[in-house]
Amino acid sequence: MAKRKIVRIPEFRMADPGSRGIKLNRLDPGTEVSGEHSIASPHRDDHYMLIVVEQGKLGGNIDFEEIESEGPFLMIVFPGQVHLLAPQTPLSGWIIDFDPAIVDPQLRNELDTRCKDLLPMYQSPSDAAFQQIQKLLTATQVLYQQPLDTKHKAIAAILTGVLHIINGLALNIAGTGSPKKDRPQQIKQQFLTLLYQHYSEWKKPSEYAEKLAISTAHLNDTMKQLTGRSTMSVIQEHCVMEAERLLHFTDLSVNEISYRLGYPNPSHFIAIFRAQKGITPLRYRASVTS
């Protein structure tokens, strides 16, 4: 019997309509880690997953980055990231799955652009911020078990508070100083938000600049200032990351991946991939699947 061709990476949605966009699981030693879905194979989600570990060790990978973290630490898995995580020792803490729609867009943008490169964030049990997060999640757990009609709004408000604390920790780690954002940071965050939504359609910096109501040169100067890379490089890096995921986790041909990513000319796509990774897509696939 012929092997069934894998044409997409498994993607999971929040399945429980009663969760109202938030699903909380308490992690206790001796109990099985349960989430919104099976985590037995690499997959991605359409929602966020906040992991707060007080004790224990978690291993796996997120978008090809190996993870082996021992508590206490904080971690967010972002929508679209391919991940496979498994406890290495019994864990205590929380897993919170939450829909992007319940988070204020500005806070969501800040988390997306500031936290990805800083996670996991290791903590000390005596850190005031970590203790505050523990108290808030404990309160959330109590509310979560109550038969109150308004509990979901209260839980969403507490989760927002937790995310603001995490954003503040990331701000301190990054050394960006004041939480008040300047205009270049706003442009960067708005550009990345558009990129995550439209990377398969928009390949020209001018298309993003038009939506941001700024000149292409201004956008490019801003990205150079904040990331050291041109706008075109950032666009191509994001497309190549998605190509890596598809090469690793699906059986799509290079041509099919090229078309899916919005490159009608596969030769052009191959040239971009090789410029970013130093090898062709086929050689990359062979290196990760051998």
Describe the structure.
Residues 189-287 form the HTH araC/xylS-type domain. It holds the Pfam family HTH_18. It comes from Chitinophaga rupis. 46% of the residues lie in helices and 17% in strands. With 290 residues, it is α+β, with helices and mostly antiparallel strands. It has two domains: 11-174, Jelly Rolls; 183-289, Arc Repressor Mutant, subunit A, CATH 1.10.10.60. The radius of gyration is 20 Å and the shape is globular. The model has no long low-confidence stretch (mean pLDDT 86).
What's the short version?
InterPro entries: AraC-bd (IPR003313), Homeodomain-like_sf (IPR009057), HTH-like (IPR037923), HTH_AraC (IPR018060), Tscrpt_reg_AraC-type_HTH (IPR020449). The chain is an alpha+beta fold.
Label this structure with key terms.
single chain, 290 residues, Jelly Rolls, 5-stranded antiparallel β-sheet, Arc Repressor Mutant, subunit A, HTH_AraC, 10 helices, DNA-binding transcription factor activity, 3-stranded antiparallel β-sheet, DNA-binding, AraC-type DNA-binding protein, alpha+beta, transcription
Number of domains: 2
CATH level-4 homologous superfamily of the largest domain: Regulatory protein AraC
* Physical arrangement of strands within the biggest beta sheet: 2-9-4-7-10
Q: Mean of the pLDDT scores?
A: 86
Largest sheet: 5 strands, antiparallel
Pfam families: AraC_binding (PF02311), HTH_18 (PF12833)
Domain HTH araC/xylS-type: 189-287
Keywords: DNA-binding, Transcription, Transcription regulation
Protein name: AraC-type DNA-binding protein
